[in-house]
Amino acid sequence: MATLALLQARQTYVGKQYYYRNNVVNTFREQENAAVVKIQSWFRGCQIRAYLRHLGRAATIIQKWWRSYLGRKQFQLTVKVAYYTMKMNLYNAMAVRIQKRWRGYKVRKYLFNYFYFKEYLRAVSETNDAIREALEEFAEMKEREEKKANLEREERKKNHQARKTHYLLSTNQIPGIYNSPFRKEPDPWELRLQKVKPLTHRKPKVKEEYNTDLTSWLACTSARSFPPSEILPPINRKQCQGPFRDITDVLEQRYKPLEPTLWVTEPINELKLAREQLRREQWVRNVNDNMFFPFASYHKNSKYIPSIHTSSKYGPDSYGKQQFRAENPKKWICDKDFQTVLPSFELFSKYGKLYSKAGEIV
Amino acid sequence: MVAELATRPQNIETLQNAGVMSLLRPLLLDVVPTIQQTAALALGRLANYNDDLAEAVVKGDILPQLVYSLAEQNRFYKKAAAFVLRAVGKHSPQLAQAIVDCGALDTLVICLEDFDPGVKEAAVWAIGYIARHNAELSQAVVDAGAVPLLVLCIQEPEIALKRIAASALSDISKHSPELAQTVVDAGAIAHLAQMILNPDSKLKRQVLSALSQVAKHSVDLAEMVVEAEIFPVVLTCLKDKDEYVKKNACTLIREIAKHTPELSQLIVNAGGVAAVIDCIGSCKGNIRLPGIMMLGYVAAHSENLAMAVIISKGVPQLSICLSEEPEDHIKAAAAWALGQIGRHTPEHARAVAVTNTLPVLLALYMSAESSEDLQVKSKKAIKNILQKCTYLPALEPFLYDAPPNILKHVVGQFSKVLPHDSKARRLFVTSGGLKKVQEIKAEPGSLLQEYIHSINNCYPEEIVRYYSPGYSDTLLQRVDSYQPLIN
């Protein structure tokens, strides 16, 4: 207990001592606090700044990497595109080469064969030349023929002239006009006159009248009988020996036409035929063919039969042209006329008119 | 009386008035046949001379009497009556219609079956003149059943009858395709084709004309004519002495060639083009026209055929025609043909341009004397050829004297060729073409301006400026304004 009382007596002293001892620190506490705060703030600042620097570096690194990643991606894309373009260009170039070859081949082979065309044109020009030559020859031939024809005509004319004037030929005594003694050679006309046959006038031809009289018809004209007298005997027949009658007399006699007498020309049953003819003529004029018998009423024993038209009780029938087109309106069942269902047949609509327009007045 | 009538036909030139008709008419009904014949002959000669007299014949009601007695009388009367009908029918369609109205066609057709060749000839002649005028009359003739008889007449040995029958067939078939088909159906083509070989030239004229009238209507008819194997015989007709035979042969070939390329090919393969070109060279005037048109048609079908025409030496001949001929329509045809040849490819245009025809064409286009047709055709030809022409020496003269619408094409061609050819560029400059091009005034934005621009781009700047107009003035201006360096 003593300690306690000691302690309690020291309490205030201890308290004050405690306060004073602790208060010592107080005097520098502000200063020290401020210093400490300064140091701490400076240190925290450094710390934070270091931290911020660190962060900045980290951000840079991240951004660096990120951007390089993006760039690489872009680059790959560019490379891809460039590669693709390069390939496509290559393909295009190759395709152009193929198309070039193919189109050239196609046009040359199927569409327009240049060499064939050249050949064709050459063939055409050759044909042209051949035709031209042939036509030239033809024209020349024609000319030659025409010249020849002209020359022949001239010749014939001259010959005809010479024939007409053959009397101008020179004789032994008198030289003709074309054979003058002062000339060295006779004129060509002279030679022509010598060659040519003199012209004589033709007698007008008498036209034979066509013989139509009966006697020449009655001569045996069948092919099996003697030939007609116009045929002359053959010329080269050797003359038979001996005095013979004149050949014309002989032939005249041989082929003398038949001249029958009247008794021969008439038919043998002439009388009978004449009677028949007379009977026929009279029969034409007969009114009644029956023979005439006397006692006429004795033979009349047939009953008279009247005709059916007179003996019927009905009148003349309603038949005939007038009734064909008669209209009977009471008998009609309907009051409308026929209607055409099918179109009319135009072929006959022009009946009575001409089928062509010829003859219509314009 | 007979003697009086017989002398009357000799002096038709002393004009007889219409009293003659009434005098002659009762004489036709005279008992003596010689008087009838001579009366008919006199009527025919009068009607032949003048169409008023022919009208008087129709009005005087003589025709029915003639037609009626045609059926019965002897052959001299038939000949004279057919002569009258022919003389009346040849003047105009109305008179021919009057003849048909009297029913003369049936009696004429009956005359065609007569034995005497003179009667047949007169009847065929009358039928031919009637059918010549228009299609209805030809149809009437065909309806009367004349065509098979005409084909029979062609086969007769007399040359005059053949001639007239061929000309009648040609007159019938020229109007329409159906009539031509009727003629073909009667089997006329084979006989006509055989008669081409006949030496008589008037007959050949008519036969060729008939075949060309048949062939002109359609492709089928032309093919049928070709199937009758007329080539190459027709080409010999091109060398005939008679001008009209040549003309009709050219017409026939032209009608065949104009339908399809295959037919033209056939003609080219048979050497027809060369023959026609020679024929053109040997004729003058209107005879040449169908040949020129034929070349144009052949060249128009395709470029191969045009090349065939070129190698057959057609272009020099055509250009000779173009420059020599006085008539405008022949020149127009030649211009058209040249245009057809040159319009296909640059080779063709070059072939045409080489022969120096382009200046001639230009002159024709510009001259005031040419007819409108000629101007139009030459303009088209120039345009077609220029659009394909790359032969620069021929184009250069055009720069100087062409009108603006043609100049446009010329400059266009230059602008196409110059960028690729260095020698041509050099030649262009040295010949003064560049200078001329600079002088051309063109609206900005027009096609001409673009062409000039593209030509200028082919040359360095200084040369273009050197040749531009007024360059010497600008140089002098620069000299004036230059301050010399004073040092």
Description:
The complex is a heterodimer of chains A (362) and B (487). With 362 residues, chain A is an all-alpha fold. Chain A has helices at residues 2-111, 114-164, 188-195, 214-218, 247-254, 262-265, 270-284, 296-299, 308-311, 321-324. Chain A has a domain at 10-110. With 487 residues, chain B is mainly α. Chain B is 75% helix and 0% strand. In chain B, α12 (159-173) runs parallel beside α15 (201-215), α21 (289-301) packs across α22 (303-311) and α21 runs parallel beside α24 (328-342). Chain B is elongated, with a radius of gyration of 33 Å.
Q: Report the mean per-residue pLDDT of chain A as an integer.
A: 82
Helix/sheet category of chain A? mainly alpha
Structural class of chain B: mainly alpha
- Beta-strand residue fraction of chain A: under 5%
Q: Using DSSP, what is the number of strands of chain B?
A: 0
Main beta sheet of chain A: strand number and arrangement?
Answer: none
Catalogue the unreliable spans of chain A: none
Poorly predicted runs of chain B: none
Mean pLDDT of chain B: 85
Subcellular location (chain A): Cytoplasm
Organism (chain A): Microcebus murinus
GO molecular function (chain A): calmodulin binding
Keywords (chain A): Calmodulin-binding, Coiled coil, Cytoplasm, Repeat
Q: Which structural traits does this protein have?
A:
heterodimer, A: mainly alpha, 59% helix, B: 487 residues, mainly alpha, 34 helices, elongated, calmodulin-binding (chain A), ASPM (chain A)
Write the layout of secondary structure elements.
The complex is a heterodimer of chains A (362) and B (487).
Chain A: H1 2-111, H2 114-164, H3 188-195, H4 214-218, H5 247-254, H6 262-265, H7 270-284, H8 296-299, H9 308-311, H10 321-324
Chain B: H1 2-7, H2 19-28, H3 33-49, H4 51-59, H5 62-70, H6 75-89, H7 93-101, H8 104-112, H9 117-132, H10 135-143, H11 146-154, H12 159-173, H13 177-185, H14 188-195, H15 201-215, H16 219-227, H17 233-237, H18 243-257, H19 261-269, H20 272-282, H21 289-301, H22 303-311, H23 314-324, H24 328-342, H25 346-354, H26 357-366, H27 372-388, H28 392-401, H29 404-417, H30 422-430, H31 433-439, H32 447-456, H33 461-467, H34 471-481
